[in-house]
Please model this.
Amino acid sequence: MADFSGLEHIVRENEPLSPYGWLRTGGVARYFSEPTTEEELVTLVMLCKAQGITVKLLGSGSNILVASEIVDAMIVHLSAAAFSEITVTDNYVTAKGGAKLVQLLSTAAREGLSGLESLAGIPGTVAGALKTNAGTHNDDIGQWTQAVKVLTREGEVAVREGDELRFAYRESSLNELVILEGTFALKSMDPVEVTKRTQTQWILTKTRQPRGGAGTICMFRDHGGVTAESLIESAGLKGIEMGAASLNDSCLNYLELKEGGSVDNAVVLLKHVQATVEAQTGVALIRQVEVW
Ligand SMILES: Cc1cc2nc3c(=O)[nH]c(=O)nc-3n(C[C@H](O)[C@H](O)[C@H](O)COP(=O)(O)OP(=O)(O)OC[C@H]3O[C@@H](n4cnc5c(N)ncnc54)[C@H](O)[C@@H]3O)c2cc1C
Model:
C-alpha cells in the first residue's frame, strides 16, 4: 500500500464502486477515501501528489459509469458533514460541494430565494452539478453561480469568479481538482411562490426521466438544438435490448440495467447506440456520462 500516514482511518483499498454509482455495478477503486475535514482532504491530496497517485472526485455518481475492473486512482467522496453545509447571506446561498442539489433547492425555497428552481429533480451533488453545468434546455446552474471555491492540484484553496468562471452546455471551466463550494446569487421572492415553482418543475422533470432512479444513466448530450432522444428514435432504436441493458421506453436517452446486469452489458449498448445513430443520421453523439 502507498503511504497514507496519519490518514489510515479514512483510506480504504480496493473499495467496490458499485454502491456509489447509479448503475449499481462497476469495478473497484484502488484507493478510496471519505475525508472528514478540509485539512484531511488537503493532506490526502498532497500525499497522493507526492506518490504520483491520480485523484478523482466522486459526487453522487449519477453521471459516472465505472467500466474499468480497477480504477487505478484515489477516489475521493465528500460525504462527511463538513462538505455539505449550506449558508445564506442576503440573496446569496453558499453550498459546499458534497451537499445534495435537492438540499440547496429546498434551502433557497425556504429562504425565499429564486433562480435555481429549474434544477429540481436533477440528481446529484452541488459539485457534480457545477462541474457538468447541470440544467434543462432553458436554464443551468452556471447562470446563477457567482463564485466557486476550489482546491487546486497543488493543494491550494482558491476562489474562481468573474471572467475565471465559464459555463457552456453541460460544461464548465472548473478543471481544478476539487470543487469545495459554490455561491449562488439569487432573487428575493415569496417563499411560497419559490416552493410552488420548485414543486412544479420537479414534477415536469420527473416526467422526462425513467421511474426508479437506480440502474439508470443519461447517455448522450443533445446535439445542436436536436435532442439525443429524437436522434435515437430516428435511428430506429426504440425498444432495443442487449443482454441486461435496454433503453427506457419513454425516455430513450436513458440506459437501464436490470439487477444483476454487468457493466459490460451497459457499455456494449452505449456503443451500439452511438454507432447506429451515426450510421443512420450522420450525427456523432457525444457522451454525457463520464466513463471511468
Ligand atoms: C436519472 C438521471 C437524470 C438526469 N437528469 C439530468 C438533467 O436533467 N440535467 C442534467 O444536466 N443532468 C442530468 N443528469 C446527469 C447528472 O445527474 C448530473 O450531471 C449531476 O449534476 C451529476 O452530479 P453528481 O454529484 O452525481 O456527480 P458525479 O456523477 O459523481 O460526477 C460528475 C463529474 O463531477 C466531478 N465531481 C464530482 N464531485 C466533485 C468535486 N467535489 N470536485 C470536483 N469534481 C467533482 C466528477 O469527477 C465527474 O467528473 C441525470 C442523471 C440521471 C441518472
Remarks:
- Residues 11-81 form a domain with the Uridine Diphospho-n-acetylenolpyruvylglucosamine Reductase; domain 2 fold (CATH 3.30.43.10).
